[in-house]
Amino acid sequence: MHSICFQATGVPRSNYIFDSCSPALAISKPINLRFCGLRKEAFGFSGLTHSSSGRVRFSSRGHSKKVSASAESNGSPPKSFDYDLIIIGAGVGGHGAALHAVEKGLKTAIIEGDVVGGTCVNRGCVPSKALLAVSGKMRELQSEHHMKALGLQVSAAGYDRQGVADHANNLASKIRSNLTNSMKALGVDILTGVGTIVGPQKVKYGKVGFPDNIVTAKNIIIATGSVPFVPKGIEVDGKTVITSDHALKLESVPDWIAIVGSGYIGLEFSDVYTALGSEVTFIEALDQLMPGFDPEIGKLAQRVLINPRKIDYHTGVFATKITPAKDGKPVIIELIDAKTKEPKDTLEVDAALIATGRAPFTNGLGLENVNVVTQRGFVPVDERMRVIDTNGNLVPHLYCIGDANGKMMLAHAASAQGISVVEQVTGRDHVLNHLSIPAACFTHPEISMVGLTEPQAREKAQKEGFEVGVAKTSFKANTKALAENEGEGLAKLIYRPDNGEILGVHIFGLHAADLIHEASNAIALGTRIQDIKFAVHAHPTLSEVLDELFKSAKVSF
């Protein structure tokens, strides 16, 4: 619940699975989709790292704090340091940390052992956006009603599968190259190899067949990310039973594909596959599709994104066994009832995409050398991303950001966490407000959100004793949306009438992913409705959807 933006591939560091869920829920329960947060001036960031066993790692951030007794027992900290900051892994989180560290004057190194850019650039946000751009164009060209309404006549739309795949691959290659060159130009040392913590403020790295190198730093950041989770009983062959890593290569467009999981990853791929002519069957363990979205938005999205398309679904079921196609036989999926565990159905399809979530990639980090034990695969941290050891003490100068800590599994959240860490190690206390971090699903139309869903807000209100207000505006009332013949959409504001606090904003409609930032910035800055409703928006623009939304809220003073 981005853009589709996933973490590193390779052997999972953990076997923990995440469900898809809203960003607000992801604060305590991560979602299964990563979203990109690349800074434009930073189109230069380092990639993943591989161990001798093929593990991939992402960059992460360092932090200075008090040394716990348990950490000191693993060796004395060095008296002088090679770097001010070492980041293990070069995904979006590590990249954001490295850029900010250089800006703050820190001598910085990032450890990377695969390709620069991490999953986001190579197997996530970037190539997925290329595929979704194609699906959006195809939908427009295939919609006779839409084209006729605009007075356009277009002959039958078609596509070249390899050309589409090349577009995604070429985009990833271009961004990866730009990021690498930019990182070097900024003066960040890119150290090639797998990073492992060997003691307080010490990291070793190296490539297979070569001696390891040991480097020291005042602060170390772990940003190793996550990998696709494949439940037991599912056999992935990379051809007919695939994960998002394989799907982004678009090696085939099956006639009928089952997608296991209806979160962000599953939704976006359903948009791609149906636009290219596939029939899709969703398999969802919960009783409804898109369980992590605000229920009202999810209901509308289902009406627009699911029901009119060649999509059917099974809810309340688990796929306990999936066998790849072979010897002329199709992919076989065995379903059981999620509650009773009784056999429910057997499906025979051409392919299956496993979109069941992400697992933190934290095995093999050397955490035992600083007396740290992961919790369900996550590295335990406090609100400042400082790593906590088994005794509940802060590990000195060690931080963890992004999917590896599980606070909020979005790529741009990892970057924001990294920037927060750099602020702290350079003397400015900073605590990131995760409720201000937006998320988006790049379907057609798009879905975006920030803060709490309505049920979450009402639960909070009941506990804390305040009323909840809800305001809504339709894209059908927006001039720009109507000019584009894209009036299908809804914006929803959840707020406190007593003081004007914005609790959450949810948008379904044209360019929802772009529109959400006015709301997320308002939450981050603590702006109240009574103030933001006086902001001026250009006319006619889609931004007026938010303008009308804030103006329609009823604040009691």
TrEMBL record:
InterPro entries: Class-I_Pyr_Nuc-Dis_Oxidored, FAD/NAD-bd_sf, FAD/NAD-binding_dom, FAD/NAD-linked_Rdtase_dimer_sf, Pyr_nuc-diS_OxRdtase, Pyr_nucl-diS_OxRdtase_dimer, Pyr_OxRdtase_I_AS
Needed cofactors: FAD
Keywords: Chloroplast, Disulfide bond, FAD, Flavoprotein, NAD, Nucleotide-binding, Oxidoreductase, Plastid, Redox-active center, Transit peptide
Entries under Pfam families matching the protein: Pyr_redox_2, Pyr_redox_dim
Localization annotation: Plastid, Chloroplast stroma
GO molecular function: dihydrolipoyl dehydrogenase (NADH) activity; flavin adenine dinucleotide binding
List of catalytic residues: H539 (proton acceptor)
Binding-site residues for FAD, renumbered to this chain: K129, G195, T224, G225, S226, D403, M409, L410, A411, H412
GO biological process, one term: response to arsenic-containing substance
Amino acids binding NAD(+): G261, S262, G263, Y264, I265, G266, L267, E268, E284, G357
Domain FAD/NAD(P)-binding: 83-418
Cofactor annotation comment: Binds 1 FAD per subunit.
Source organism superkingdom: Eukaryota
Any one of the GO CC terms: chloroplast stroma
Location, primary (coarse class): plastid
Keyword Oxidoreductase: yes
Record domain Pyridine nucleotide-disulphide oxidoreductase dimerisation: where: 437-548
Catalysed reaction equations from the record: N(6)-[(R)-dihydrolipoyl]-L-lysyl-[protein] + NAD(+) = N(6)-[(R)-lipoyl]-L-lysyl-[protein] + NADH + H(+)
Intrachain S-S bonds: C120-C125
EC number: 1.8.1.4
Subunit structure of this chain's protein: Homodimer. Part of the plastidial pyruvate dehydrogenase complex (PDC) containing multiple copies of three enzymatic components: pyruvate dehydrogenase (E1), dihydrolipoamide acetyltransferase (E2) and lipoamide dehydrogenase (E3).
Similarity annotation: Belongs to the class-I pyridine nucleotide-disulfide oxidoreductase family.
Main function: Lipoamide dehydrogenase is a component of the plastidial pyruvate dehydrogenase complex (PDC).
Name this protein carries in UniProt: dihydrolipoyl dehydrogenase
